[in-house]
């Protein structure tokens, strides 16, 4: 794809705002529309666009598959762990009241933490699915069409 | 102590990503085994604390039901939780060698991850008191099951199409289920099971409710392989890795049966006419057809695992038959059979896995004469087969005994006769295996691998337990009878005492 100058320049322009927008959706999920799931998908789109324009190898250099595997497991653990720690404070699972001095703030913090876990897992799983599909060797090569 | 219902689900849920993260096969296996045993211990504790009829209610995140999600444990839930976690505890030691021989090493860690997630899903379905939560957990277990079935591709590529078919059928089932839930939500405005039961009783019958009931029935019917909806099951069971088949055959359909019983009797209630008619004029004939048609098809199978899979469809027929009697005794028979069949079919599929380990094939033709060089596995298979037929002194007999008693209680003696007649079909396919194993000559050139003890011991453990519960059925029958009472008294006992 080295000859597609316009594509490469536009992609380079687009990727930072996409990531920024993903972060906006992520951190505003607690009191506006949005949240970890949507943010994760948007975040992953930035990397998928990068791979589409600059090639899969470039993406895997940025995001080695071993790292992806650890990150998507970590996201689930952040979610479950946030709920799990509550039990040590004598609360029920997922009761975030332990996180702050007053319950409303604590719930907000809890949701932020949990949504971070969701966002991390969704983003990395989306990238992982893309890599899994894209790295398949096609049964018909480009020249044979 | 008070967090036990949550721990039951969280332990496997948190262990699963750890397995994937570390990615080492031995570590993943060790952690999964540890978690399975811990879960089993928790479910026994839960069962002991609800045995006397108390109901444990646990508010997720501290939000009180009906708005918050509630975990609700009564005798029936706890019994099903015990089946699922207990079977996992038996399958895990078995899986070590079986999985090592059937799967690529790179997949082992992911195998245990998916396995733990599947277990989480099944136990979550059983423990939750929220109808929508049932759907979520059902999807967790189904999605991981598709992956587990597809992993059989290392041995036979057809596992991929089997998994894909299962995915399509399972997704249709889940969609129907959630559409049904939507209708119920439309009528009642709630998703909490206890609340649903009260509101449905208060609102009375309506066309929307009937549609909701029918969608839920068909959706769950697909998941539990109710007779004409069973077509995904034989392929999925035949091509999945042996440990997975063992686990699914002994837990997945049982949990789906539980969901059906819970929705029918706890939510819609015993005195819902539309349901009673559906059960007696649709479910009962289908159950009878399943018993005969699936057993007959099983007789003509060329593959051992496929034969056992069809036999599972027939056994699901017995469980549905017990439910469609709409009596306490019928439900008792269903719950007892859930447990007994889990032991028996688990043991039989483990034996099939041992044959696959030894000769790398489950085709019946390839198993000729193995009774002579694999005495332990073959004897175990025969013992399990006797249980499947329902010979006295085996657990299968207890199930059929109660099922027939339930039929006699209603004076439906033709059905009792049909139960016996369908058992005779089981004699044919079990005898066919006995003949192949013991009466045929071993091929001269044979390459039989010795089956390791880690596979033999869990298999014999399950089958000896099935004999134990066939001789002294007090524990299982009294638990099942209490569970049936909890379901029958749905609107009065179950929902009022814990809330």
Distance between the termini of chain B: 19 Å
Residue runs with pLDDT of under 50 for 5 or more positions of chain A: none
Q: Sheet with the most strands of chain B?
A: 2 strands, antiparallel
Q: Could you list the spans of chain B in which at least 5 consecutive residues all have pLDDT below 50? A: 491-499
The total count of strands of chain A amounts to: 0
Molecular structure report:
The complex is a heterodimer of chains A (145) and B (499). Chain A is mainly alpha-helical and 145 residues long. Chain A has one domain (5-135). Chain A has five helices and no strands. Chain A is elongated. By secondary structure, chain B is mostly helical. Chain B is 78% helix and 2% strand. Chain B contains 20 helices and two strands. Chain B has helices spanning 4-22, 25-50, 75-102, 108-127, 131-150, 158-188, 193-203, 207-223, 232-239, 242-268, 273-299, 304-324, 328-359, 370-373, 375-389, 395-409, 413-439, 453-471, 474-488, 490-497, and strands spanning 56-59, 70-73. Chain B has a two-stranded antiparallel ribbon with strand order 1-2. The chains are: A mainly alpha (145), B mainly alpha (499). Chain A binds chain B through residues 69-70, 72-74, 76-77, 80-81, 83-84, 87, 91-97, and chain B through 3, 6-7, 10, 13-14, 16-18, 20-21, 23, 58-62.
Concise synopsis of the structure shown:
The complex is a heterodimer of chains A (145) and B (499). Chain A has helices at 5-27, 36-54, 56-62, 65-88, 103-134.
């Amino acid at each position: 794809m080295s000859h597609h100058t316009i594509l490469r320049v536009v992609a380079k322009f687009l990727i930072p705002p996409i990531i920024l927008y993903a972060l906006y959706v992520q951190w505003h999920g607690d009191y506006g529309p949005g949240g970890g799931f949507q943010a994760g998908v948007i975040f992953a789109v930035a990397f998928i666009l990068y791979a589409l324009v600059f090639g899969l190898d470039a993406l895997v250099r940025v995001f080695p598959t071993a790292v992806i595997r650890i990150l998507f497991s970590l996201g689930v653990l952040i979610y479950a762990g946030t709920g799990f720690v509550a039990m040590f404070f004598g609360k029920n699972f997922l009761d975030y009241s332990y996180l702050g001095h007053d319950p409303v703030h604590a719930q907000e913090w809890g949701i932020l933490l949990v949504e971070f876990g969701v966002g991390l897992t969704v983003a990395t799983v989306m990238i992982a699915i893309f890599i899994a599909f894209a790295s398949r060797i096609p049964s018909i090569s480009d020249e044979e069409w | 102590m008070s967090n036990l219902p949550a721990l039951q689900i969280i332990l496997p849920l948190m262990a699963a990503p750890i397995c994937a993260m570390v990615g080492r096969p031995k570590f993943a296996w060790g952690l999964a085994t540890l978690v399975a045993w811990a879960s089993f211990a928790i479910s026994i504790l839960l069962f002991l604390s609800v045995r006397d009829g108390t109901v444990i209610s646990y508010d997720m995140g501290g939000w009180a039901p009906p708005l918050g999600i509630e975990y609700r444990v009564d005798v029936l839930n706890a019994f099903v939780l015990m089946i699922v976690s207990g079977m996992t505890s038996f399958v895990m030691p078995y899986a070590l060698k079986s999985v090592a021989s059937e799967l690529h090493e790179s997949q082992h860690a992911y195998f245990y991850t998916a396995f733990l997630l599947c277990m989480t899903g099944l136990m979550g379905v059983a423990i939750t008191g929220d109808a929508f939560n049932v759907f979520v957990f059902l999807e967790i277990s189904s999605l991981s099951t598709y992956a587990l079935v597809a992993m059989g591709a290392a041995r036979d590529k057809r596992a991929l199409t089997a998994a894909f078919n299962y995915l399509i059928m399972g997704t249709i089932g889940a969609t129907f289920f959630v559409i049904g839930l939507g209708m119920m939500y439309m009528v009642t405005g709630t998703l909490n099971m206890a609340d649903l039961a009260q509101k449905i009783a208060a609102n009375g019958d309506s066309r929307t409710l009937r549609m909701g009931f029918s969608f839920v029935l068909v959706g769950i019917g697909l998941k539990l392989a109710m007779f004409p909806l069973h077509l995904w099951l034989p392929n999925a069971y035949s091509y999945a890795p042996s440990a997975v088949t063992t686990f699914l055959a002994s837990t997945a359909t049982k949990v789906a049966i539980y969901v059906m019983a819970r929705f029918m009797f706890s939510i819609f209630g015993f005195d819902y006419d539309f349901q009673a008619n559906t059960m007696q004029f649709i479910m009962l004939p289908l159950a009878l057809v399943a018993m005969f048609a699936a057993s007959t098809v099983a007789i003509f199978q060329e593959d051992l695992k496929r034969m056992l899979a069809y036999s599972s469809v027939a056994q699901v027929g017995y469980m549905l038959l017990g439910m469609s009697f709409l009596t306490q005794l019928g439900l008792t028979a269903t719950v007892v059979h859930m447990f007994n069949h889990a032991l028996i079919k688990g043991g039989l599929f483990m034996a099939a896995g041992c044959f696959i380990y030894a000769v790398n094939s489950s085709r019946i033709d390839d198993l000729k004469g193995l009774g002579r060089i694999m005495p332990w596995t073959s004897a175990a298979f025969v013992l399990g087969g006797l249980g499947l037929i329902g010979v006295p002194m085996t657990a299968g007999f207890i199930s059929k005994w109660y099922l027939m008693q339930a039929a006699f209680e209603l004076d439906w003696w033709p059905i009792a006769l049909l139960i016996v007649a369908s058992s005779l079909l089981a004699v044919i396919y079990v005898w066919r295996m006995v003949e192949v194993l013991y009466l045929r000559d071993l091929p001269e050139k044979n390459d039989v691998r010795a089956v390791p003890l880690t596979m033999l011991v869990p298999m014999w453990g399950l089958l000896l337990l099935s004999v134990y519960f066939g001789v002294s059925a007090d524990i299982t029958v009294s638990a099942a009878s209490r569970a049936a009472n909890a379901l029958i008294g749905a609107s009065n006992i179950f929902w009022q005492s814990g809330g």
